[in-house]
Structures are given as structure tokens and as C-alpha cells.
Write a structure and sequence with these properties.
The protein is of the alpha/beta class and 332 residues long. It has helices spanning 53-64, 85-94, 116-122, 136-143, 147-160, 187-202, 218-226, 230-239, 243-246, 267-272, 306-309; strands at 23-27, 71-75, 98-103, 126-130, 172-176, 208-211, 254-257, 263-264. It has a single domain (5-309), classed as TIM Barrel, CATH 3.20.20.70. Helices cover 30% and strands 11% of the residues. An eight-stranded mixed β-sheet has the order 6-5-4-3-2-1-7-8. Helix 2 (85-94) links the parallel strand 2 (71-75) and strand 3 (98-103).
Length: 332
């Protein structure tokens, strides 16, 4: 795999500083039942890294000492494959935290996960589900044959439990990312296309669609390098940069935690090994400080950060600003 960090560090991205942390995004491990082309984590079935019980305990202690933290955002890999996932969710919900599960939908059919959907509903966990297109051919091309059908079955199962149904209290948000080196289409228009197609063809409902740009790192970045498209994609991101999006980037209020408990400004920096704070500081761990101590700290930036400010902007909660890119289709 091609290393992309050396191609990103010489950057003129605007300087950023942290505000109060209200969201902790924890990566529970890199093991996944899928190996997606666009995956910025390089997750897959052969990965063994996972957050250990003592690190989960440290994560909960960190949050308990940080009352400003209101959201626990769980990601991976497939976070549900970590044996500590359900215990962590149960404790977090009992403490009143809003818990988000970044779910790939096909995990609902994995052996041992037969009751996962019921567990998520019982705990009122928000599900953010990856569905990179509403067309079978595009999804299977990006994520593997049969993935689309399994995803549709997963969505129907969640709908049957009340997810995505108005006034149910069970939030189901979908995630779109482009098929290749292009910016996401306008979020509002694409949401309408998803609603029309998924509703008409499959009777599926959902709350919101989040459009995310592909980051030029890990598996996707390596693919761009192999195809000679890396520099062109970076130019696309830089040329589409909008200053107004800088104000709203997620790293200002989100803290990323890796499977070992080390801290980063965002999930993308985590995958690049850009630890939080200055370049000469030792890696900080959950056990080293509380979230309040991070307010005002500088954020580590590089050229991949333009992926969050290009066009309508991109974050874990979707677009940041107004829509400026045309063609509301998921086949781009």
C-alpha cells in the first residue's frame, strides 16, 4: 500500500484551534466483515486490532471526568464485532449519553449478531448506516457482490423496529460517499433521490442522508496513487475549498480515540498517525488528561483537511454548508 502522509504534510490549510469537546469518537477496532475500496481505515476481516476491556474502562472513566461530553460515537471497522461493544453501549446509555453506532448494515446478518438490531433499538442507539448508493450495481462494485441486497434487508429490519419512522425516537441516518475521486453531490437533492428510490422500490424510510467526501488516505489514497490520480484529486479538493466551512469542521469539538486509547483531532488524523498536539509531543492517552484541558489546543492539519472544507463541506454529520455541486445522483 502506498503511504500518502508524505504527500499531504506540506500544506497551506488554515490554522485551527480546538473548542470544548462535546463528542468522543472511539474506534473499537479495525476488524470488519467487509473490505471497501473507499475505506480510510483499511479495515477488513483479517485485521486483529480491537479495543481491550481495560481501554474501554479508561474510555468510560475519561467521559465520566468530562461532563461536557454528551455524545459517544462508535466506529471501526465494524464496531459491533468488538466483544465489549454491547457492555460499552449499555453503560454509556445508562449515563445519559447519546450513542451513535456507525453500522455497515451487513453486520446485522453476521453469525452471532442475530439480535443486534433488537439490542440497538432497546438501547435507543442512533444508527448511522453506510449505503454509498441506492443502486445495486454501484454498491456491489464498491463493497462486494451481494452487499446491496444484504443492506436492504438490514434497513428493512431496522424499519420494522421503528428506526427511521417519524416520532419513534429511533434515528436512522444513511451515509453516501462517491464512487471515485469526485466531490459528493448536493446533500439535499441526493437525499430526495434516496428517499424516492428506496421508498418506492423497497418501502424503506430514514431520517437523514449524510454526504461524505472520500479522504486521500489509506486504501482510497493508495488507489489514487496507483492510478496516477492523487495529485488531481488534491487539486480538486483545494480548488473547491470554502473558507466558511472552516468554522464548522468537526475537529473543533470532536475527539478521536484509537483502539489503544490514544488521542487524535479526528479519525483521519488517527489513520495518518498525526497524534493530537504538537509534533514533538509524546502520544497522549485517555489516562493522561480530561477533555476540558484540550480547549484552545492547535489542531494538526495537512492537505487531507481540504476534504472537509471542499464544496458543501464534509463531516461525520454530513455537509457543512450550502450545496454548490450539481448532479444529484449517487453514480458519480
Amino acid at each position: 500500500m502506498h503511504a500518502t502522509l508524505p504527500l499531504l504534510v506540506a500544506s497551506n490549510f488554515p490554522a485551527l484551534s480546538r473548542r470544548a469537546v462535546d463528542t468522543v469518537q472511539a474506534n473499537l477496532g479495525y476488524r470488519c466483515n467487509q473490505s471497501c475500496v473507499h475505506c480510510h481505515v483499511n479495515a477488513g476481516p483479517q485485521r486483529k486490532e480491537e479495543m481491550a476491556p481495560e481501554t474501554v474502562a479508561a474510555l468510560l472513566a475519561f467521559i465520566a471526568a468530562s461532563p461536557e461530553v454528551r455524545v459517544l460515537d462508535l466506529t471501526g471497522g465494524a464496531p459491533e464485532l468488538n466483544p465489549q461493544f454491547r457492555a460499552l453501549v449499555t453503560v454509556a446509555r445508562a449515563r445519559g449519553l447519546r450513542v451513535v453506532d456507525r453500522c455497515n448494515l451487513t453486520i446485522l446478518e453476521e453469525p452471532g449478531q442475530d439480535d443486534l438490531a433488537d439490542f440497538l433499538a432497546a438501547q435507543q442507539v442512533e444508527v448511522v448506516a453506510s449505503l454509498p448508493c441506492y443502486l445495486e450495481e454501484n454498491v456491489d462494485r464498491q463493497r462486494g457482490k451481494g452487499t446491496f441486497d444484504a443492506s436492504i434487508r438490514g434497513l428493512r429490519r431496522l424499519n420494522a423496529l421503528g428506526y427511521g419512522v417519524p416520532d419513534s425516537g429511533l434515528l436512522l441516518n444513511l451515509v453516501f460517499n462517491p464512487q471515485g475521486p469526485s466531490l459528493p453531490p448536493p446533500q439535499e437533492a441526493l437525499t430526495a433521490a434516496y428517499r424516492e428510490h428506496l421508498g418506492h422500490e423497497f418501502g424503506i424510510v430514514f431520517n437523514q442522508l449524510f454526504t461524505l467526501a472520500n479522504m486521500p488516505i489509506q486504501r482510497f489514497g493508495s488507489m489514487l496513487v496507483s492510478k496516477g490520480q492523487f495529485n488531481a484529486y488534491l487539486r480538486l479538493l483545494r480548488d473547491a475549498h470554502r473558507d466558511e466551512n472552516v468554522e464548522h469542521v468537526m475537529c473543533r469539538h470532536l475527539l478521536s480515540v484509537d483502539w489503544q486509547g490514544y488521542l487524535y483531532d479526528c479519525d483521519f488524523n488517527q489513520q495518518l498517525g498525526l497524534n493530537i498536539g504538537s509534533t514533538n509531543r509524546h502520544r497522549l492517552h485517555l489516562t493522561d488528561l480530561a477533555a476540558a484541558a484540550l480547549a484552545g489546543w492547535p489542531i494538526r492539519v495537512a492537505d487531507h483537511c481540504y476534504g472537509c472544507t471542499a464544496g458543501q463541506g464534509s463531516s461525520c454529520a454530513g455537509a457543512l454548508g450550502d450545496e454548490v455541486v450539481a448532479a444529484p445522483t449517487c453514480s458519480s
